[in-house]
Amino acid sequence: MKRLLTRLAFYLFTAWAAITINFFIARTLPGNPVSALLTKFQGQIDSSAIASLTALFGLDKHQSLWDQYVAYWGQLAHGDLGISFSQFPVPVSTLIGSYLPWTLFLVGTATVLSFLIGTALGVLSGWRRGSWTDALLPATAFLSSIPYFWLGLIAISVLAGPASFFPGSFSYDQGLTPVWTPSFVANAVQHAILPAATIVISSMSGWLLGMRNMMVTVSSEDYITVAHAKGLSDRRVMFSYAARNAMLPSVSGFALSLGFIVSGTFLVEIVFSYQGVGTLLLQAIGADDYPLMEGIFLVITLAVLAANFLADLAYLLLDPRTRKEG
Q1: What is the dihedral of CA 73, 17, 92, 167, to 10 degrees?
Q2: According to CATH, where is 1.10.3720.10 located in the chain?
């Protein structure tokens, strides 16, 4: 319990530091976002609105830095991440909320599938060395060396097309309205197959090789020999004894992968014109939309911290040694 509380305090401190750094980013970057906004709209916004826009963006020079910092925390407490410069006056939280579910759906599903498939094949390959599973190693190593976007381009050129079952762009047919109906869900799944497959194929080998190496190491431990001597079945020893201990290093890696789901896989989303957070961040960078960039960075940071905290909880459940004090 003490270890858990210590880790929780660490993550809370890290979250505070990330939010504080995020606050100072907009105040240290060169340029005046209000002037840039007035220039962009070129006469559509009256110059008398400068004071109101400055206060709206939280950049009022008449306020002390401490008052701005406290106001920033107040905005975050209400879920307010500011106003987007490039898509003024749409709130940043609204933009992220409309793009984030697509990234979670695509990259989340692909990450979980690659972890499950790679880990399962790694367990079999490490436990049954010399069998057919060894043939997977060179093939998966070759596929993992191919970048996501290159596999995506190959998939589009070979499998996508006007008469193909696999769409080559967008997260759903552009004529459809996003509603939770069976036909729309089926259409969204159809659009996600190719980009998800490129992520699974490229990332699966990392989990396979890591799990295989750990299984080879664990299989020579004394407690595995004792488990066999007790007459336990080979299947039970493989999963309950060897795999349970061998997968501990993979848990932390999987937790980090879950955290980075929020950031998406930028190049895959760009290649397939997928409406995810990666595409949104690229648009924000191209338009110098600082509030939108800050909002996305903050969401990614908090997601990674939450994923690491869940990894610590998983360690407590999988490894009894971590539950012992001192």
Answers
A1: -150
A2: 93-323
